């Protein structure tokens, strides 16, 4: 059985993009991708192409015939209807979104709220890294759970699923506290003792899951987990009494007047 690979944003024949973002003519870019692809992929391997094969030109789809492996396409914003029809005629399976193992695979990154439904999002679409070479720069804090397979960031060749798994396994190594420290460092937060605690708890929830809780005595938002532990950016949060912790989604029933005030002062200013 062959290996599984992911890639995106091939942009065959797209002169403007390759000149602007890759510093080469489209012919040179196409040939580089073809060469590196065929050096990496065998005829038994499966390659999921997460969008933007061309710049809406059906004629450039013929380049796919030069590439080894079994190709499956998740359409991108430039894979218009006529291109998808041509792909179908070529015998290539095409879809709008793919669920592979415990990952959601799309062209454009999914909204952070949907990360709770999966282990991570494998995507493309984003092209230009920032000064720190973060090619997920357009994504929200917590973007470790996104993996960009745009060819421009992977030597103009597909990325093996094993490599992607290794990346996510590395994120999940160690204790929760160590993961929290890494996440805090990535955001540039050295010491967390000021700021909007709702904002902080929401970032943690989007990154690690759990539920928002409010300490009714201290007046503080945290994230709670099934094991009964609570966390904020400072680490484990230990309330004076467990009865002080109320799930935020139930707070409106617990204390309607206070709920409205907290929502006005904290949530709506998030």
Could you give the topology of this structure?
Elements: E1 4-7, H1 15-22, H2 26-40, E2 46-49, E3 70-74, H3 81-89, E4 93-95, E5 98-100, E6 103-105, E7 120-123, E8 146-148, E9 159-160, H4 161-171, H5 176-186, H6 197-208, E10 211-215, E11 220-224, E12 230-232, E13 235-237, E14 245-247, H7 251-254, H8 256-267
Parallel strand pairs: 1-2, 2-3, 3-4, 6-7, 7-8
Antiparallel strand pairs: 1-9, 5-6, 10-11, 10-14, 11-12, 12-13
Describe this structure in words.
This protein has 270 residues and is an alpha/beta fold. The chain folds into two domains: 168 residues, Purple Acid Phosphatase, chain A, domain 2; 92 residues, no CATH class. The strands form three sheets. A five-stranded mixed beta sheet has the order 4-3-2-1-9. Strand 3, helix 3 and strand 4 form a beta-alpha-beta unit. The radius of gyration is 22 Å and the shape is elongated.
Provide tags for this entry.
single chain, 270 residues, alpha/beta, Purple Acid Phosphatase, chain A, domain 2, five-stranded mixed β-sheet, five-stranded antiparallel β-sheet, 8 helices, 14 strands, elongated
């Amino acid at each position: 059985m062959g290996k599984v690979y992911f890639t995106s944003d091939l942009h065959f024949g797209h002169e403007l993009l390759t000149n602007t973002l890759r510093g080469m003519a489209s012919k040179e870019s196409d040939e580089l991708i073809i060469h590196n692809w065929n050096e990496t992929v065998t005829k038994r391997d499966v390659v999921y192409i997460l969008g933007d094969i061309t710049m809406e030109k059906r004629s450039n789809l013929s380049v796919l015939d030069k590439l080894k492996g079994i190709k499956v396409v998740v359409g991108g914003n430039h894979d218009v209807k006529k291109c998808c029809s041509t792909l179908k005629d070529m015998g290539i399976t095409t879809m709008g979104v793919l669920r592979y193992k415990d990952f959601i695979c799309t062209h454009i990154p999914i909204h952070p709220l949907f990360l709770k439904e999966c282990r991570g999002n494998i995507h493309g679409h984003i092209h230009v890294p920032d000064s720190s070479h973060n090619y997920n720069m357009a994504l929200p804090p917590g973007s470790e759970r996104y993996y960009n397979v745009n060819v421009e960031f992977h030597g103009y060749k597909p990325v093996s699923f094993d490599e992607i798994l290794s990346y996510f396994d590395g994120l999940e190594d160690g204790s929760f506290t160590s993961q929290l420290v890494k996440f805090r460092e990535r955001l540039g937060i050295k010491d967390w003792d000021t700021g909007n605690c709702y904002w902080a708890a929401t970032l943690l929830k989007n990154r690690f899951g759990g539920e928002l809780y409010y300490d009714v005595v201290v007046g503080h938002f945290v994230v709670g987990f099934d094991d009964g532990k609570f966390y904020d950016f400072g680490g484990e949060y230990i309330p004076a009494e467990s009865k002080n912790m109320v799930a935020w989604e139930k707070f409106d029933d617990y204390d309607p007047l206070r709920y409205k005030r907290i929502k006005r002062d904290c949530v709506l200013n998030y």
